Amino acid sequence: MSHGAEQILAKVKKYVSHYKSQQEQIIGLLRIFDLDNDGLISYLELVDGVKSLGIPAKKNDMLELMEHMDKDKDGFITQIELYKAMDLKPMHEGYQGTSVSIDHVLQKLKKGAEKYHNIGEYVNVLF
Ligand SMILES: [Ca+2]
Ligand SMILES: [Ca+2]
């Protein structure tokens, strides 16, 4: 990324850095940028958002920033792409993954336990 595009991104990051959680930062960004509320940030929304924050930006830098943020090049910045661009980890992904897998394991344990006659036999299967 060019220096200009990096500067714009750094200023956007700084603008939301007062939010406590990463999720709030992303929601804050969507409030600024996602003007039509479809959950995606288009190039025009990105340009308008940067303007509305009073960040001076050249067209080339904006195009480069869009290129950088729109990882799959579909013309829109999704929330996941936003997390990546802001160097944030999508917490909900990891969180859901963990809770789902624990549930899954518990379910498996319950189902499995019925099949075996004693705990020793069951533990042998598990480990
Ligand atoms: Ca939008
Ligand atoms: Ca995209």
Would you summarize the structure shown here?
By secondary structure, the chain is mainly alpha-helical.
List keywords for this structure.
127 residues, mainly alpha, Recoverin, domain 1, 2 domains, two-stranded antiparallel ribbon, binds calcium ion
Low-confidence stretches: 94-99
In one word, what is the shape?
elongated
Structural class: mainly alpha
The beta-strand count equals 2
The tally of helices reads 7
Q: For the record, give the distance between the C-alpha atoms at the N and C termini, rounded to a whole number.
A: 49 Å
How would you characterize this protein structure?
This protein is mostly helical. Residues 94-99 have low confidence and may be disordered. The chain has a two-stranded antiparallel ribbon with strand order 1-2. The chain is elongated. The protein has seven helices and two strands; from the N terminus they run ααβααβααα. The chain has two domains: 3-89, EF-hand (Recoverin, domain 1, Orthogonal Bundle), CATH 1.10.238; 92-126. Helices cover 69% and strands 3% of the residues. The structure holds calcium ion (2 copies). The site of one calcium ion has 8 residues, from strand 2.
Q: SSE layout and pairings?
A:
Elements: H1 3-16, H2 22-33, E1 41-42, H3 43-52, H4 59-69, E2 76-77, H5 79-85, H6 91-115, H7 119-126
Antiparallel strand pairs: 1-2
Helix pairs in contact: 1-4
Bound molecules: calcium ion (2 copies).
